[in-house]
Every structure is written in structure tokens, then in C-alpha cells.
Amino acid sequence: MSGNAIEIEGLRKTYAGQKGTGPKDALKGIDLAIPEGSVFGLLGPNGAGKSTLINILAGLVVKSSGRVRIWGFDQDVNPRQSRAAIGVMPQELNLDPFFTPRAALEVQAGLYGVPKSQRRSDEILELVGLSDKANAYARTLSGGMRRRLLLAKALVHSPQILVLDEPTAGVDIELRQMLWSNVRKLNEQGMTIILTTHYLEEAEEMCDEIAIINHGEKVAQDSTANLLGRIDAKTMVIHPASEADTLPSGKGMEVDRRPDGAIAITYRAAETSAEDVLAAVHDAGISIRDVKTEEADLQDVFLELTRAG
User: Which residue among 6, 119, 200, 271 has the highest number of C-beta atoms inside a 10 angstrom radius?
Assistant: First the structure.
């Protein structure tokens, strides 16, 4: 092992086009290294190629070219071992409605060749909070419970890597908290987690490292802290003591009046100091009742990196 759970080199996937259109490149030579034991975010707008990449890792889509190594196994040389090292919780609720959760896990374990003596169906059901529904038909489960069952199915063969594809899309707050609690527990036990999500605050909170892809190309990969540091924009929010007739102005400042009467001044720390901002407020004759600052978040980084596309 190189210290990376997954290594991807020059990964391409081209789909044949519809009649009258040319072929479509879903992935355009992506290089990606995912550190062992990390919580890794894979972000991108709709159609960026995230699902294609995940389906290639899961062995559901055949790549056009490139190299994929999963837990040290080359996908072309050792397909069974590489597939056994990864578990995928898909976005779609693809469950057999006539199977109970326990039966679904037993069948899934059988498909992966897990001997009966080594199966952990009841232990996994307890982990995801489905012990009391172990013998209920899947069709009677709520949407949130079905998502829990998808997570359970991804864990039956004790994979070293767990892929969560939009795991909290459309779920309530309680289920989301339960899911992240389980994910943190699995990660603490050494499991590598790969997460795709449209909830960027989740990625910011959960992920050690993030890659952003757009139009089939990787546009960034770095630690979450370093990505956030790429944008040095700050916003100073001034709550005036009385309604301000004149807004402050100055070089490198963007000024906006908010609905609650606060004045938001956005500036780049490398170009404009906080003292300059406060001086502009003073020059505008504004008396300050309260002041706070806001830092850039992952959404700002995401939009800046994908805007060009």
C-alpha cells in the first residue's frame, strides 16, 4: 500500500452519442489520490462526472482508459479483490420490497462470498438503527429507514472503503445526524469514507480533503482548510446605531445594505485592511452599535472554481 486507499490515473470515460450527436466525454483524464483513513469529499455540479466516477470504482461502469487501484489492487488485474475492498451506498433506493432487512443483508453477504459464520447482519442492523425492523418487509419501511438499509448493505462484506453517494438527500435532520454519527464511528475504526453531497456545509464539516470536478475534469484537490484559504474574501457586517443615510465606500470594497438595516462590506484581506474598512465607515458618519466578520465558506470556493465552466 502507498498510503492511498484509491489511486486513479488518466481516467477517461466516453459514451457513444445519440443519433446525430457525437460521443460524450464524461471523464477527461482524471488523476486522483484518496488518502487511506480519510473522509474525502468528491464535489461537483450536476453532470460533472461524479456518478460515472463512482460507478467505475464500484465496477458498474467500464472505463474507456486509465488506471484505477483500489486498496492496492489494480482494477484490471485483480477485479474481484478491488471490488471486495469497496462498499457503495447508492443515491437511488434500489431495494427488493419483498425482502426483510435481515434477509437483504444475508443475500448481499452471500453475493460477496462472506461465509455464514462471518456474517454480521444483526450487528450491522443495530449499527444503523434497524434492529426492531429486522423482520419487516422492506416495502413497509419509511424512506429514511430504506436509506439506513442501503448503508447496511454497503457494509456486509466489511469493506476498507465506503462510498456515500448523496447519502442525506431528502432526509430529515434526525436521520442525517444518525448517519454522520455512524460515519464518524466507522472512520475512527480506520475505514476510508468517500462522500458526494450537494450540502456543502456537510462537506466542510465532515471532510479532511476535497476534490472538485467540473465537466469531467478535476479543477481542485486539497485539504478542506487549504481550499477555504484560497478565497481571502471577508465580510464585515456593521450594525449602525441609527439608520445610515450614506453608505461607506473605498477601494476594493463591495458595500450592501441588508434587510435588517445592517451594512455588509466585503473586501479581500490581501488588498484592504480591516482598519481601512472601519475608517470608511467613520468617514461616512456612521456610528457603530455592533460589528462582526464573516469568512468565506466552501460554497464560495465551489462557485469560484466551477464558475468558469
Answer: 6
Rounded to whole angstroms, how far apart are CA atoms 228 and 204? 9
pLDDT of residue 21: 76
C-alpha cell, 232: 481571502
Task: Note whether 4-228 and 232-296 share their fold.
Answer: no
Partners of 25 in the beta sheet? 14
Who contacts 22 (Cβ-Cβ below 8 Å, separation ≥6)?
Answer: none
The list of the chain residues with pLDDT below 70 reads 1-2, 20, 230-232, 295-297, 308-309
Which pLDDT value is given to residue 300? 75
pLDDT confidence of residue 91: 83
Burial 145-155 (b: 16+ CB within 10 A, else e): bbbbbbbbbbb
pLDDT of the residue at 308:
57
Its CATH architecture, for the domain 232-296, is 2-Layer Sandwich (3.30)
59: left (phi over 0), alpha (psi -120 to 50) or beta: left
Q: Taking a C-beta distance cutoff of 8 angstroms, is the pair 27, 15 a contact?
A: no
Q: Which residues make Cβ contacts (< 8 Å) with residue 179, sequence separation at least 6?
A: 147, 148, 151, 167, 168, 171
In the chain the first and final C-alpha atoms are separated, in Å, by 36
What does the pLDDT read at residue 244?
86
Residue whose C-alpha cell is 460477496: 112
**Which superfamily does 4-228 belong to?**
P-loop containing nucleotide triphosphate hydrolases (3.40.50.300)
Q: Give the residue among 90, 88, 98, 89 at the shortest CA–CA distance from 141.
A: 98
C-alpha cell at 96: 427488493
44 neighbors 306 (Cβ within 8 angstroms)? yes
Q: Where are the domains positioned within the chain?
A: 4-228, 232-296
**Kind and range of the H or E run holding 29:** strand 24-35
Which residues are CB-neighbours of 253 under 8 A, at least 6 positions away? 265, 266, 267, 272, 277, 280
